[in-house]
Amino acid sequence: MKHHIAAVVVGACRRFWDRCAHETSSTVGLRSILAGVLLAGMTMPASSQTAYPTRPVQLIIAYGGGSVGDVSMRLLANKLTEKLGASFIVDNRPGAGGIVAARAVAAAAPDGYTLLLTGNSYAISTALFNSLPYNILNDFVSISTVASFDMLILTKTGSPLKSLQDIIAFAKKNPGKLNIGTLSAGTTQFLAVEMLKIEAGINVTTVPFRTSTEVATALLRGDVDIVLDTMPPMQSLIETQKATVIATAGRQRFLPDVPTAIESGVKDFDASSWNGIAAPAGTPRSIVDTLSKATTEVLRSSEVQNTAHKLGIAMGGSTPEEITARMKTDINKWSSVIAKANIPKLN
User: Fold this and answer.
1) Does residue 213 contact residue 221 with C-beta atoms inside 8 Å?
2) Residues in Cβ contact with 331 at an 8 Å cutoff, skipping those fewer than 6 apart
3) Sheet of 151-156: strands edge to edge?
4) Do 163 and 266 touch, CB atoms closer than 8 A?
5) Long-range contacts of 253-259, Cβ-Cβ distance < 8 Å, separation of 24 or more
6) Which letter does DSSP use for residue 97 in this model?
7) What is the rounded average pLDDT of the residues 47-74?
8) What is the mean pLDDT of the chain?
9) Given its phi and psi angles, is residue 186 left (phi above 0), alpha (psi -120 to 50 degrees) or beta?
10) Which helix (H) or strand (E) holds 229?
């Protein structure tokens, strides 16, 4: 359409210029001014075509509603909608270890209107699967980090295990007798337990569940002694004092009164998780930069920060280069854990 408009304008200008050859100099001067205005207007349609975004943006995530990924992306989507003037719509597509969501975005047009929740889970998938129908580094372009969230190590309130040192001491005296509840193989939670076993040098029994709700129920029933999961699904147990956080699994203290696993003597235990946004490979850098800058700006707002903190989430943006570097680092980290734990790769 814009090429048709440009052709019409150019044709009109040429006809006008031919007529000018037979006019007086003063008339030519006037018509030259008008021609300049007309030609300048030719650039307006092209400029408007490069504006972004001009229609709804789909943000596809591989998690169901209420998950930490869903919550963080909805906070971001609401703020990007306000800032950029087009709707950012969260599209939940859970299943197949994130493959369903990743394939949908990889196959989308690289125009910035279909985005992917990327992050730690895709680093794990890359490390865990022999082959995938996408390459997280080559088939996507990173935009920005969005959120990070620490794993919590919890016991049922009243448990004799009051600290991570207590857990390690008991586990070493009683190999295989402690049960740790977590999510299914391939999740950050599951691999975090494997990392804990490696770094602490303990033999405990991993008990995987499909959902965090099932993990919480197992802890309350006494089916498991310890739980390793994120804050949002465990928050109600903590607030009602049915469960106690005895350590966090990141490098920095997330809860001011709770030590990290590293502070508790487990060197190099960092099982923090994170997410971000990415677009199909080939998306113009101008669009990537627009999204990266806007994401970083909206996540700084006190409203976002306060809401996220209550949910146990730390939110903040990054440059595209920073998120790509983090993805590469985590692929290497989880590849090492999988190899040391002798976890068979999946097809």
Assistant:
1) no
2) 123, 126, 127
3) 205-209, 179-183, 226-230, 151-156, 243-248
4) no
5) 254/150, 254/312, 254/314, 259/164
6) G
7) 85
8) 87
9) left
10) strand 226-230
Which H or E run contains 145?
A: strand 140-149
Give me the half-sphere count of Cα atoms (radius 13 Å) on the Cβ side of residue 248.
20
DSSP state of 96: G
CB atoms within 10 A of CB 311: 17
DSSP H/E element including 221: helix 212-221
- The CA distance from 238 to 146, in Å, is 25
Tokens 């060197």 map to which residue? 267
Fold of the domain built from segment(s) 57-148+275-340? D-Maltodextrin-Binding Protein; domain 2 (3.40.190)
CA angle in degrees (0–180, nearest 5) for 217-158-252: 80
- The residue ranges of every structural domain in the chain are 2-49, 57-148+275-340, 151-248
Instruction: Tell me whether strands 314-315 and 140-149 are parallel, antiparallel or unpaired.
Output: antiparallel
Name 140's bridge partners: 280
What burial letters (b/e) apply to 133-160, b meaning 16+ CB within 10 Å? ebebbebbbbbbbbbbbbbbbbbbeebe
pTM summary value: 0.79
Which range has the worst mean pLDDT, 115-124, 128-137, 173-182, 229-238? Answer: 229-238
Q: What are φ and ψ of residue 63, in 5° steps?
A: -130, 155
Residue with tokens 């490390």: 127
Q: Give φ, ψ of 327 to 5 degrees.
A: -60, -45
Most confident of 6-15, 264-273, 327-336: 327-336
Residue count (the chain): 347
Mean pLDDT of 316-327: 97
Q: Tell me, what DSSP letter sits at residue 128? A: H
Token pair of 142, please?
Answer: 């990173």
Q: What sign does the CA torsion over 90, 96, 102, 103 have?
A: negative
Bigger pLDDT: 47 vs 228: 228
Cβ–Cβ under 8 Å, residues 215 and 182: yes
Tell the CATH topology of 151-248. Answer: D-Maltodextrin-Binding Protein; domain 2 (3.40.190)
Q: Are 63 and 146 in contact (CB under 8 A)?
A: no
For 85-158, where are the alpha helices, taking DSSP H only? Answer: 99-106, 120-128
Contacts of 321 (CB under 8 A, 6+ apart): 142
